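Let's do one together. I've listed all components of the complex below, 1032 residues spread over three lines.
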Amino acid sequence: MAENKTFTPLPDLPPPASTVGFVGWLRSNLFSSPANTIMTVLAAVFALWLIPPTLDWTLFSAVYSGGSEACAANPDAACWPFITKRLPQFFYGFYEETERWRVDVAAIMLAVGLVWLLIERLPYRQFVGLFMLLVYPLIAWALLYGSVFGIDFFPIVQTSLWGGFSLTLVIALTGIVISLPLGIVFALGRQSKMPIIRTICISFIEFWRGVPLITVLFMASVMLPLFLPEGVTFDQLLRALLGVALFSSAYMAEVVRGGLQAIPKGQTEGAQSLGLGYWLMMRKIILPQALKTVIPGIVNTFIGLFKDTTLVLIISLFDLLGVVQAAIADPNWSVKSVPYTGYVFVALVFWVCCFGMSQYSRYVERKLHTGHKR
Amino acid sequence: MTDSVQTKAPSGDKSFWNEPKNRSIVYQLLVLLIVVGLGWSIFDNTLKNLEARGISTGFDFLSSEAGFAIIQTLIEFNESSTYGDVFIIGLLNTLLVAVIGIILATVLGFIMGVARLSPNWLVRKLAEVYIEIFRNVPLLLQIFFWYHAVLKAQPGPREVFKSGDQVYFGVTNRGIALPEFSFAASFDYVIWLFFIGVAVSVFVKKWARERQVRTGQQFPVFLATLGLTIGLPLVLFLILGIPVEAIPGEMTRFSLKGGTTINPEFIALTLALVVYTAAFIAEIVRAGIQAVSYGQTEASRALGLQESVTLRLVIIPQAMRVIVPPLTSQFLNLTKNSSLAAAIAYPDLVSIFAGTSLNQTGQALEIMGMTLAIYLLISLLTSVFMNWYNSRIKLVER
Amino acid sequence: MSETATQNVKSSSMTDEVAIRLEGVNKWYGQFHVLKDINLTVKRGERIVICGPSGSGKSTMIRCINRLEEHQQGKILVDDIELTDNLKNIEAIRREVGMCFQHFNLFPHLTVLENCTLAPIWVRKMPKKEAEEIAMHYLERVKIPDQANKFPGQLSGGQQQRVAIARSLCMNPKVMLFDEPTSALDPEMIAEVLDVMIGLAESGMTMLCVTHEMGFARKVADRVIFMDAGQIVEENEPEAFFGNPQNERTQLFLSQILGH
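Okay, and this is what the predicted structure of the assembly comes out as:
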């Protein structure tokens, strides 16, 4: 027999130059075939047509200082003084100037709480979460309105004076805080074996999901006063909040139902075999798993809700878009570039918030995926 | 034996409350009581409030004269038209925006969704930027942008056209001016030929399929259909000497007379709805295509199927079952979102019926009821379709 | 040939005609050199088993043969047709080369029968009836004609893999590639798939199998190839390969997979 040969791997050779590096990247991503090359050229022409003028308009040629005269002198570029001069109004609305520190305090508390919840290394996150969910809304209401449960803490600021981005936040956060628990209740009700409860929950969910939010706001504004006994009145903001909360809880219920259905039946059987009752099983076994799987869906509902807050301007509440819309109509600023600038500013604010939320939900999704796969 | 022990159940368990059946009945009665009580109180309050305000309930108002003008009417509308007519016009305008919006948004959405997966880096990035921008900006803002910042900022007709101009095309703050098309009688033949072409195409498709089943021979059905439905009518159209006349509008001293004008409210609303919804559709299409595992493509390649057949028979049927359900809900969203028309006074159902008519008549209950019923009906029909579709395409698994 | 009676399967279906030839094939994934200078000639009717540790490039190599992967240097000839970017050639070769995957890759939205008739109807342009007859013939051969109208999701893993084999056979391929056909299966289902593959080998099909089923290799292979680090380290007749491996890398690998 021949002697045993020894296996020595050949050395790794470098790949052909045309398949790697920058040239390889260009070849495979932009010019892999004639059709692809044509597409690249067309797309490049389109991008060149669109992007440089946009950047020029918003940044390079834009007016940064002065007043409406400066903008009128340069009508083909963004008019940023319009934004900077009115920034306080865009944030506080018509909130009394001497009391605006109260809005600041509420906003700072909110920011601290949210950051605390998003950073996973910080301790006591559960405690902070409960605080933000249960205690913070009361504190915020006391700060913003001045009075809770009939106890006056500060001079009262009527809700009709609220506005701007702070009002957008109030509506969105109220919707979020109310819609999640309400949505869970309705989702459980819809899955229930009791026919009457199930029917009621299905009707509720399908009703709100079937009608546009704008009609809901109309109803809240026009019909709610009819529904209430004589003498009981609701402030316009509260009516809008009620409408938004009920509307979004129906959407939330459907998201949660998706999570409940994704839990294998074995989980229920396992829990039942251990002798857990319905509520205990839901609380300890089913809901934690279900909610975890639908975090992206929940965040998407929040994003939708956040964008939908702009609709309140139709029942004459001045959220960020409403305030900017009103400012655009100001005759002192009747310059061609002002409406564009105003809308671009609002778009930017909303885009940052919504894109941020969607990136966060993608991050969570990725993190959940690295866990056990089913 | 232990029989006697077993038959004797612990007496505590026999109590009323521990029978699941009883418990369920009590719960349900309780909930029912609350819901009915709430409903009754609302009903009672409403009646009292209406009485106090002197508003009589009922649908009599539908036959009384509306007496306001509407900028876009698909059916005859004049001073003597009733609130019933307003309802119909609003509904038609809503449906018009919805149908046109759905068609355009689907086309744009599919293009963007496929572009999002393009092997071409630049195309992919442009599609991604489009999706991420328009998805994350409120729809109402987009409507305002197109309406107030773009369309209403155009110069007026008197600045665009000179007196006496024949206007074939022009963009002004009154909308897009187009000529009015007048079709000669012989144009009917073209229409007829088109319908005949459609009928023949259906037949050809059937025949081609049967022939393939029988002999294996294939037939270019798509090209044949294209020729029969578009090609032949086009040829006839040219032979007849183009039996269409475009009558331009004419600029008088103050305004544009004649011609067709697409009003800016309609354009802004449709444009915003299409651009916004298409961004969502693009994401749905992308997810649908990605949901078909790459193994499917490899397997069909390994079988020697051509790329076009792979796409048509393997990828698309599988992607569609992922795409269609969320796509339908986007269609529904677009229809519901068209109610934002009220913000720029496009005369849709919400704007002129639940808005103007409600303010004029005060019949809040009836008008809101009718409006909500229409939207609920549309949702109901959609979900009936969805259930049918889902049960038809469900993958069979063990 | 000097075959013993026990190796009855290895009837000399092997001819001198060349079915597949790989000459100096190199392939990279980015900077990673997966295939290094592969030379391999497969005769018509020859049965080859390829083994080796994971990441050694064995799957990549057979996936190059029907162009599921693209090689960057060297030549691959199938039936004397060279594999280049030419789509016509690629299509022609894929028509003649069947493949079975580790995860079956059946089309879940089509029935078993439709899975089998899809390619004959659309590629071979066969009448439906004829295609169905052929499909039923092969489904009988893999012993599941009664499942013809079920959907893949309703079948067990072993049954699905047998359908996948039948699906390939319906195209009447000249060469069959198997990419770890049994590694996603439960042990009791491996036998039923291997039985089908042995039957196929007996019928004289040219086969390239990436598998770690050494019993199968002993029984049917004309040649066993051991790959590591993107190279063919050793190739030999199964008896010699298992009985007297020449290379220490091969010895180590064999001791690892046969050692218990």
